[in-house]
Amino acid sequence: MAHTVVIVDDHEVVRQGLRRALERVATDCEVVGEAGTVAEARTVVAATDPDVAILDVVLPDGDGIQLCRELRASHPNTACLLLTSFPDPRGLLSAALAGAGAYLGKDSRAADLAETVALLAKGGTLLPPDTVPELLDKVTGTVDEDPRVATLTDQERRVFELIGQGLSNRQIAERLFLAERTVKNYTTRLLDKLQMERRTEAAALAARLAERRAQSSARQPPSTSNTP
């Protein structure tokens, strides 16, 4: 019996590409629905009850991490696979804590994607609970920073860091391949999480943290080499 999949991404061309990739590589896979927003995803998943939901981390009305958390609570039999354009340890940790079964880059091979979907559909996972302590060590092993920053999602953090570099919303949108309105929404949410009213406050904090990380990196001893 074919396992069923729902694809959630705000770009239709990406959804169609994922559908074709899965149908070409995985003969036992059936895509039963698509969605472009968090709101649409809730409706589609409720109507189809898929084995696996493939979720883009960045969505116009929210993010895939929170959506994964919601779906795992409301549809425990639906496994979630998170896709991101920018894999990083914090995103991986967030995915694991949200109950995702896998966290892959969008540049993954079609065969790897199909294998992961099949694994999740059978009840497997690439993010078992015992990986969380190791991921926490990787994340908390970085430079100490304002605890409010730790509440940001990986995409909110990227927007935050680019604000610290002095980029405008339009420039950030171009850098991250997002709509300018989406960047404005991320900015509003991150300011709320940082308990700040002004963009300039966030820019100052981001610049200060970036300088601290640079200083910490400069203090690291150079790597040794066995070459004579």
Word description of this protein:
There is one protein chain. This protein has 228 residues and is α/β, with parallel strands linked by helices. The protein has 2 domains: 3-133, Response regulator (Rossmann fold, 3-Layer(aba) Sandwich); 143-215, Winged helix-like DNA-binding domain superfamily/Winged helix DNA-binding domain (Arc Repressor Mutant, subunit A). Helices cover 53% and strands 14% of the residues. The chain is built from 10 helices and 7 strands. Helix 7 packs across helix 9 and helix 8 packs across helix 9.
CATH class type of the largest domain? Alpha Beta
**CATH fold type of the largest domain:** Rossmann fold
Largest sheet strand order:
2-1-3-6-7
SSE-based structural type? alpha/beta
Reconstruct the topology from this structure.
Blueprint: E1 3-8, H1 12-25, E2 29-35, H2 38-48, E3 52-56, E4 58-59, E5 62-63, H3 64-74, E6 79-84, H4 89-97, E7 102-105, H5 110-121, H6 132-140, H7 154-164, H8 169-176, H9 180-193, H10 199-219
Parallel strand pairs: 1-2, 1-3, 3-6, 6-7
Antiparallel strand pairs: 4-5
Helix pairs in contact: 1-5, 4-6, 7-9, 7-10, 8-9
Descriptive terms for the model:
2 domains; two-stranded antiparallel ribbon; disordered C terminus; 228 residues; five-stranded parallel sheet; alpha/beta
